[in-house]
Amino acid sequence: MDSTRTNLKTLRRDAIAQAFERTKKEVCFPEGELVFITEDRLDGALSMPRQCFIDDEPMGKSIGVQFTEEFKLFWLATFRQGLSFMLVNPTNGDIMGFRGICTAFKEDKDDVNQIKDASLRKIFSILGVLAKEADFFGRYDIEECFYFLGLGVAKQYRKRGIAKRLMEAGIVFLRNLGVDPVYIKSEGTSNFSKRIFEQLGFETLAEIKYEEYEVDGEVVFKNTGEHKSVKAYGMKISKA
Predict the structure, then answer these.
(1) Is the distance from CB of 141 to CB of 123 less than 8 angstroms?
(2) pLDDT confidence tier of residue 6, bands split at 50, 70 and 90
(3) In 40-161, which residue ranges form alpha helices assigned H by DSSP?
(4) pTM over 0.90
(5) What percentage of the chain reaches a pLDDT higher than 90?
(6) Residue 41: other Cβ atoms inside 10 A
(7) Which residue ranges does the record assign to the N-acetyltransferase domain (predicted)?
């Protein structure tokens, strides 16, 4: 492991802002403006996971996940790390899409039993199993990484390639931070997100088919339609 790498816990706000400004010049969004999700934009930003992860995400939809206070706090914690951004329509102020980004550390210990919402607990449970199979930190021999957590586009702005460009913008933004190498972990739960990850060169680290994931002998995620599995992804970006 390279002990000389930048500590992600000490990233400076000015460096983050400068990287974001460079990113906005490098990734083209003629239909909107990229903006950071700041404290004054939280209410609007929360509308995106409420829409995209309640109505459309295969696992959540199959078990009837609701946007509970616990789920809201989860997204607030993500956004308040100050790395997530969204695309805003300058004409009417619509939030067109968002790219959630946070940091993750090998030392993190997540106890799903502390999650009160039963449906939410089911989702985090399968993601925990997936993470163990992927062994992201062991595979790359690292202690920290960036985590792509949540990607969504508002219904009225879909089928324009915005999701893929938001993903590209996330990659460019992290590269512009000056961290080298950059490690990114994530999951894809739908055919749409998995297609984007794979088109952009992410490595598939593990996969769990929905029909094969059982708890107490019962399949948890039923009726996921065309979406058949959740995959764990990883990417290393290096200047070397």
Answers:
(1) no
(2) low
(3) 42-51, 58-63, 69-79, 118-134, 136-140
(4) yes
(5) 89
(6) 17
(7) 85-226
Phi-psi region of 102 (alpha: psi -120 to 50; beta: other; left: phi over 0): beta
Are residues 87 and 166 in contact, defined by beta-carbon separation less than 8 angstroms? yes
Distance CA 125, CA 108 (A): 15
In angstroms, rounded to a whole number, what is the distance separating the alpha carbons of residues 121 and 36?
29
CA 143 vs. chain centroid, Å, equals 19
The helix/strand/coil state of 84 is coil
149-165 CB burial, b ≥16 within 10 A, e <16 = bbbbbbeebeeeebbbb
Are the beta carbons of 84 and 36 closer than 8 angstroms? yes
Q: What is the pLDDT of residues 58-67, one digit of tens each?
A: 999 999 999 9
- Sequential DSSP letters for 171-196: HHHHHHTT-SSEEEEEEE-SHHHHHH
Closest CA to 112 of 127, 97, 94: 127
Instruction: Judge whether residue 4 has pLDDT over 50.
Output: no
Please name the residue that has the structure tokens 């000389």: 4
User: How many whole angstroms separate alpha carbon 32 and alpha carbon 179?
Assistant: 28
Residue 92: is its pLDDT beyond 90?
A: yes
Residue 11: per-residue pLDDT = 87
Q: Which pairing describes strands 144-153 and 182-188: parallel, antiparallel, or unpaired?
A: parallel
Amino acid identity of residue 55, one-letter, is: D
How many angstroms separate the CA atoms of 171 and 182, rounded?
A: 9
Element (H, E) at 25: helix 13-26
